[in-house]
Design brief:
Protein name: Replication restart protein PriA
Bound molecules: adenosine-5'-triphosphate, zinc ion
Helix content: 25-40%
Largest sheet: 7 strands, parallel
CATH superfamily of the largest domain: P-loop containing nucleotide triphosphate hydrolases
Strand order of the largest sheet: 14-15-13-16-17-12-18
Domain Helicase C-terminal: 547-701
Keywords: ATP-binding, DNA replication, DNA-binding, Helicase, Hydrolase, Isomerase, Metal-binding, Nucleotide-binding, Primosome, Zinc
Radius of gyration: 31 Å
Binding site for Zn(2+) 1: 512, 515, 552, 555
Family: Belongs to the helicase family. PriA subfamily.
Distance between the termini: 58 Å
CATH topology of the largest domain: Rossmann fold
Number of helices: 23
């Protein structure tokens, strides 16, 4: 009897979100399972592509010839039942293609790498082609040795059927294997070999003696033996030839944290509020009950300890734990803490790891060798099978939203998985998103509160410096005398300082002082950013780079002004004012290299610097006991952005960064330089009054019809020609008017505020709605139909709950 399988294929522009049916060749019938990756032929050219088995069928109603599955890539399924259901939901909820959802669930190392090879069918070809093949049957088509002339000839040979192009599908990254040996002889035979040795064969004697001391049949890494005995690869090879041992390759994990020495720590004795929160969470773990909790705790209140003890409880119940942190800048501190409690049971998944490292961590989780997973956004897909608790730390962070397809929010996925596993989900923050806080209010979520700092101190005092008056008399353009004085004070006391530069919506640029000309990117509608370290002007959107102009490209004037404040510029200003201060700068430039985050933070923690100067990335989660002063250089830059979340982001950022001060015994103090001291977000951040901020902002959102009162979906079109992009979005707006009820609103269509990026023009509209019965279906159709346009280069993006309105 013939068997069939439904397969979702990896063909980007031919997605219908429907699987294709293939015949399972009889030799595969007992091997193929749902959730495995296979290779199939696709389209008229029968191109080889990767696919995922979604169903196995005993019969099909399809007429005509059906293509067979060509090969199987997995021995066991890489996606289980939960993963298949999750991919289904994700595709529908985020308006994504099924294939991108299935791929999102796996480490990128397991994504297909497509290779082409060539095989000669005859020797009747030019000498040049023959040399190319030498004694090989098959060569790689992408080989650098093949120049374009030769390439053209190869293509001609293919057409004449003298050469065959074969496509292959491979994993991007392979399992790392290292050499090992296995002893095969028993004691008696080894002794016999020893007696046959010549006097001079010293190395061989060492090897035989070593073999005598290890068990028969066990794999032992060559590297380990080398370290102990000084034997080398040649000696092992000789041993193998003589039949003393067998050489094999064994799998080895790449361990990203091998060099970190972490001391074990014990659980702290919980404070009453922590105790109460932990108990409520643990009750749900015990009863296998799904419940979402908001853990709202002021900065420094000890939310982490609540997480750790709940994780410990889940493990005690034989369950697993999954914890998300927003950014890799936070992971070194959190990792160390989690590892100090749970040791080898912890796996890390974050964007700072190489593909191979992520792949290895993923497999440790899949094999149940790690039961606690800590990681950034995509770690939410970790292949845990028995989850007892899911934690989303700093749940308000926008980095939880993925900006490419599938455009999911990790918090939504966390709640989906919490339901699937019948376990609690903890959303923790000192400044919860309005959405989450509102749901806690309405009792949709449980609400746990920590209102006191764990050290018993009050929150640090926050002072505003009114830059409208102070800027003119400031000792440096970006540092007021008030700020300078308190920094000096703290340095004298040998305490540490954190200074934050708010860079959102802002960049440093050059302008001609004579004609006002601003140097812009040739590909995008945005000014180029000045980078002193590379002495160049760079576009942050497309990567374009050019030299700093010596004279104005427009009027040839020589008076070029440098505007705005970058961290680099502030570092120079600071160093001039405080020549002996040791300053560490932390921004995208100083943290690009792998492990740089961790190194900088460790240095600061070890008091090798007095001042940590950085961008947003230093605002959250960091816990340095000796930091007593936090300075914010520019509070306002985000306020002016055309985004209804601008004030929420400002409030959160200021509250979070203020929370870095005074976390141990010493009292903390915060200074915020601002041009808008009367703005409510800044004033309430000064008071560190989240509750009052929440009610005020909710009133404004209600009045404006914004989330959490309304849902939003953003649609964007883009094309190399402006008219086409605009036409498409207006056409969609027209269709939407037919689909939507009178209750919904469409904002736009408008060009995006940065209309051109990398020579593409962007148009967008935003739908605000509460309950639209026909909207989903329309958008699903729009997505599928968009592919015809996509093949011509016209792109469409549907983004549910967008974070970026600019
Ligand atoms: N029960 C406890 N007893 C003593 N110290 C505690 C206790 N709980 C937490 N701490 C200490 O309080 C400090 C702050 O805790 P933690 O970093 O967890 O705060 P947080 O709530 O995560 O704050 P933030 O939102 O600012 O990141 C840490 O140094 C921690 O060790
Ligand atoms: Zn000029
Ligand atoms: Zn650009």
């Amino acid at each position: 009897m013939k068997m069939y399988a439904e397969v979702i294929v990896d063909v980007a522009t031919m997605q219908t979100n429907q699987p294709y049916t293939y015949v399972i060749p009889s030799e595969f019938v007992n091997q193929i399972e749902v959730g495995m990756r296979v290779v199939v032929g696709f389209g008229r050219g029968n191109r080889r592509v990767q696919g995922f088995i979604t169903k196995i069928l005993a019969e099909t109603t399809l007429a005509g010839p059906i293509k067979p599955i060509l090969s199987i890539q997995d021995i066991t399924p890489v996606l289980n039942t939960e993963a298949m259901l999750l991919a289904d939901w994700l595709a529908k909820y985020t308006f994504s293609f099924k294939i991108s959802c299935l791929q999102a669930l796996l480490p990128s190392a397991m994504r297909a790498k497509y290779l082409k090879t060539l095989r000669l069918k005859t020797q009747d070809v030019s000498h040049e082609v023959l040399t190319l093949f030498e004694d090989k049957d098959e060569i790689n088509f992408d080989d650098d040795k093949i120049c374009s002339n030769l390439r053209a000839e190869l293509v001609r040979l293919c057409k004449k059927d003298k050469l065959e192009i074969i496509s292959h599908v491979k994993d991007k990254v392979q399992v790392k294997k290292v050499p090992a040996i296995i002893r095969i002889l028993d004691d008696h035979d080894l002794q016999l070999e020893k007696s046959k040795l010549r006097q001079t064969a010293a190395k061989q004697l060492v090897l035989l003696n070593y073999l005598l001391n290890i068990p028969v049949g066990k794999e032992i890494l060559q590297a380990d033996i080398q370290a102990k005995t000084g034997l080398t690869a040649v000696n092992f090879k000789n041993g193998a030839t003589k039949g003393w041992l067998r050489q094999v390759k064994v799998e080895k994990y790449r361990n990203p944290y091998m060099d970190v020495n972490i001391k074990a720590t014990k659980p702290l004795k919980l404070l009453p509020q922590q105790q109460e929160a932990t108990k409520k969470i643990n009750d749900e773990i015990l009863q296998h009950n799904h419940r979402v909790f908001l853990l709202q705790g002021v900065t420094g209140s000890g939310k982490t300890e609540v997480y750790l003890q709940s994780i410990a409880y889940a493990l005690k119940q034989g369950k697993q734990a999954l914890m998300l942190v927003p950014e890799i800048s936070l992971t070194p501190q959190i990792t160390r803490l989690v590892k100090s409690r749970f040791g080898q049971d912890v796996a890390m998944l974050h964007s700072g790891l190489s593909e191979g490292e992520k792949y290895d961590e993923w497999r440790r989780i899949e094999r149940k060798e790690a039961n606690v997973v800590v990681g950034t956004r995509s770690a939410i897909f970790a292949p845990l099978t028995n989850i007892g608790i899911i934690i989303v730390d700093e749940e308000h962070e926008s980095s939880y939203k993925q900006e490419d397809m599938p455009r999911y929010h990790a918090r939504d996925v966390a709640i989906w998985r919490g339901k699937y596993h019948d376990c609690p989900v903890i959303l923790g923050s000192a400044t919860p998103s309005l959405e989450t806080r509102a749901r806690a209010q309405k009792n949709v979520y449980g609400w746990l509160q920590l209102t006191q700092r764990a050290n018993g101190n009050a929150l640090p005092q926050v002072k505003l410096v009114d830059m409208r008056q102070k800027a003119r008399f400031a000792p440096a353009p970006d540092i007021s005398s008030d700020l300078l004085q308190v920094i000096q004070n703290r340095l004298n006391k040998k305490e540490q300082v954190v200074l934050m530069l708010n860079r959102r919506g802002y960049s440093s640029f050059v302008m001609c002082r004579e004609c006002g000309f601003v140097l812009k990117c040739p590909n995008c509608d945005i000014s180029l950013t000045l980078h002193m370290n590379t002495r160049s002007m760079r576009c942050h959107y497309c990567g374009h780079e050019e030299a700093i102009p010596q004279s104005c490209p427009s009027c040839r004037g020589k008076h070029i002004g440098y505007y705005g404040t970058g961290t680099e510029k502030i570092e120079t200003e600071l160093q001039e004012l405080l020549p002996t201060a040791r300053i560490l700068r932390m921004d995208v430039d100083t943290t690009r290299r792998k492990g740089a985050h961790e190194r900088l933070l460790t240095e600061f923690g070890e008091k090798k610097a007095d001042i940590l100067l950085g961008t947003q990335m230093i605002a959250k989660g960091l816990n340095f006991p000796n930091v007593t002063l936090v300075g914010v250089l520019n509070a306002d830059t985000a306020l002016e952005l055309p985004d209804f979340r601008a004030s929420e982001k400002t409030f959160q950022l200021l509250t979070q960064v203020s929370g870095r001060a005074g976390r141990a015994e010493k009292k903390g103090e915060v200074l915020v330089q601002t041009f808008n001291p009367d703005n409510y977000a800044i004033k309430l951040a000064q008071a560190q009054n989240y509750e009052q901020y929440f009610s005020k902002e909710m009133r404004l959102r209600h009045r404006g019809g914004y989330p959490p009162y309304y849902y939003t979906i953003q649609i964007t079109t883009s094309f190399s020609d402006e008219v086409t992009a605009a036409k498409k979005i207006f056409q969609i707006a027209e269709q939407l008017k037919q689909v939507l009820t009178a209750e919904a609103q469409i904002l736009g269509p408008t060009p995006r505020s940065i209309m051109r990026i990398n020579n593409r023009y962007y148009y967008q509209l935003v739908i605000k709605y509460k309950n639209e019965p026909k909207l989903n279906e329309y958008l699903q159709k729009l997505l599928i139909h968009s592919q015809k346009d996509e093949r011509k280069g016209l792109k469409l993006i549907i983004d549910r709950d967008p974070r970026n309105f600019i």
